[in-house]
Specification:
Layout (H helix, E strand, L loop, with lengths): L7 H4 L7 H31 L3 H20 L7 H18 L21 H6 L12 H6 L1 H13 L13 H7 L5 H12 L3 H18 L2 H12 L5 H13 L13 E4 L4 E3 L7 E7 L4 H17 L5 E7 L4 H11 L4 E4 L5 H5 L7 E5 L5 E3 L9 H11 L1
Parallel strand pairs: 3-4, 4-5
Antiparallel strand pairs: 1-2, 1-5, 3-6, 6-7
Helix pairs in contact: 2-3, 3-4, 4-7, 9-10, 10-11, 10-12
Length: 391
C-alpha cells in the first residue's frame, strides 16, 4: 500500500505480487471509495430525519442491494465470500441499531445466481430465514463485521423491553423490582445464546473485559469468577486473568493511582494534592455527545449543590487539542478542576478508560469508592453517594 498523507483519499494505491489478489484489492478499494460515503450519508439522514421504520428499512435495503451487486460484478474471487459477509453484517448492525429487526430484514430483490457458489450464503440459504440469526463459526473467524454485530445483537435484543408491577408508589416499586445487574445479564445472555464454544467464550470474555470498564467492579468480578469455573478456552482465560490482576489497583478500597496533569492556566495539578476532599473524577471529551449532554444539562446544578461542601470536581478532557478544550470550557462554563490529557496517555490506561464519559468516586483518604460512579444525570444515585462520603 502506498499513499500521500496529505491526500490519502486520492493517492492510495494497492499492489500485490499475485495478480489475482491485486485485482481483488483494487476492486475492494474502488467499492470503498464509491459506497462508504453513500453509506455514511444514508446513516446520517436516517438518524437526523427519523423517517418511518418502513422507509429506513427500504433505504438500507436499496443501498445494500446496490453494493452487493457491485461486488459480485467483479466476479467470484478467493475472498469474495468474506467480503460479502462483512458487507451483510455491516448493514445488519445498522438494522439492529435502528430497531428494525425482526419486523424488517435485509434481502436481495433478485439474488444473483453467483451466490450459490459462495459456501456461506449457500449453506445459510440467503433467501430463506434471517441471516442475522445465524450462529456461524465461519463468519466469526473471518468477518469483523459479524463479530461487531453479534456482540451488540446478543446484548441488546432483550425479550422484555419494559416492566410493570402493581406497585402504587415509587418506594413500593423499588421493593418489588430486582436491581439491574447488567454484567450478569450479558453473561447469561452469552451462556444461553451460543452452541459453538469458541464463540461463547469470546463473547463472554469480551463482556467481562468491557464490563470492568463500565459496570460495578464487584458484580463483574463475580461474573469473572463464575466464568472461570466453566472451562473457557485457555487463551481467553489467560487474557481475563491478566486483565483482572491489572485491575486490582482500581477496585473499591484501593488507593487511587496518582497523576499530574496541566490545568487550563498551565499549572500542574496532582490528584494527591486534593487528598482530604471527596473527589468526583469525570473523564470526558469535547467530541463525545453524551459527555456534553451531561456537562451542559446537569453538571452546573451538581456543582452548585456542593459548592460549599468538601467535594472537588475534577474534569479530565481526553479527546481534544488544548485550543479546542479551552474553547469548550468557556462555552460550557465548566467549573471545577479542569485538566487535559489524551486517550493514548498513561492516565487513561492506568484508569482503564476505554470509553467516555466515565466517572470515579474517591473518598477523603484517597481511596476508590466506585470505579464506575453514577453520571450527574442520574440524580439521587450520585448525590446519595456523595452525601454518604462527606458525612
Amino acid at each position: 500500500m502506498d499513499w500521500d498523507a496529505q491526500d490519502d483519499k486520492n493517492t492510495l494505491t494497492i499492489t500485490s505480487a499475485r495478480p489475482e489478489r491485486e485485482k481483488e484489492l483494487r476492486a475492494a478499494l474502488s467499492e470503498e471509495k464509491s459506497y462508504t460515503p453513500q453509506f455514511r450519508a444514508l446513516l446520517q439522514s436516517l438518524y437526523k430525519d427519523l423517517p418511518a421504520d418502513s422507509i429506513k428499512a427500504a433505504r438500507l435495503n436499496q443501498l445494500f442491494n446496490e453494493e452487493m451487486k457491485a461486488v459480485l460484478a467483479n466476479g467470484i474471487q478467493a475472498h469474495t465470500g468474506t467480503w460479502l459477509m462483512d458487507l451483510y453484517y455491516r448493514y445488519a448492525e445498522q438494522m439492529r441499531s435502528l430497531n428494525l429487526f425482526p419486523a424488517y430484514d435485509l434481502s436481495l430483490a433478485d439474488a444473483p445466481a453467483e451466490l450459490k457458489n459462495i459456501p456461506f450464503f449457500a449453506t445459510a440459504g440467503f433467501n430463506h430465514g434471517k441471516l442475522y440469526q445465524l450462529e456461524s463459526e465461519d463468519a466469526f473467524l473471518h468477518s469483523s463485521s459479524y463479530r461487531d454485530f453479534l456482540y451488540n445483537y446478543i446484548r441488546f435484543y432483550d425479550p422484555f423491553r419494559a416492566t410493570t408491577t402493581l406497585a402504587k408508589t415509587p418506594e413500593e416499586q423499588q421493593q418489588r423490582e430486582l436491581p439491574f445487574t447488567p454484567a450478569w445479564k450479558d453473561y447469561y445472555s452469552g451462556l444461553r445464546s451460543f452452541r459453538v464454544k469458541l464463540i461463547r467464550d469470546w463473547f463472554i470474555s469480551k463482556c467481562i473485559l468491557d464490563g470492568f470498564a463500565f459496570y460495578n467492579y464487584e458484580e463483574v468480578s463475580a461474573v469473572y469468577r463464575d466464568f472461570l469455573t466453566r472451562d473457557p478456552a485457555p487463551y481467553y482465560a489467560a487474557a481475563l486473568k491478566e486483565n483482572y490482576n491489572k485491575l486490582q489497583s482500581l477496585k473499591p478500597g484501593a488507593a487511587a493511582p496518582d497523576f499530574t496533569l496541566a490545568d487550563e492556566h498551565g499549572w500542574q495539578v496532582s490528584l494527591s494534592s486534593l487528598k482530604g476532599k471527596v473527589i468526583y473524577l469525570d473523564f470526558w471529551g469535547v467530541y463525545c455527545g453524551p459527555c456534553m449532554v451531561e456537562i451542559n444539562d446537569h453538571t452546573a446544578q451538581l456543582h452548585e449543590k456542593y459548592k460549599d461542601k468538601n467535594v472537588v470536581f475534577v474534569n479530565i478532557c481526553v479527546d481534544a487539542s488544548e485550543k479546542e478544550w479551552k474553547n469548550t470550557l468557556v462555552k460550557s462554563r465548566l467549573k471545577g478542576v479542569n485538566l487535559i490529557t489524551q486517550f493514548s496517555d498513561p492516565v487513561c490506561s492506568t484508569y482503564n478508560i476505554s470509553g467516555i464519559p466515565h466517572y470515579y468516586l474517591i473518598d477523603q483518604a484517597g481511596r476508590i469508592v466506585d470505579n464506575n460512579a453514577p453520571r450527574p444525570s442520574q440524580g439521587n444515585m450520585l448525590t446519595d453517594a456523595l452525601d454518604k462520603l462527606i458525612k
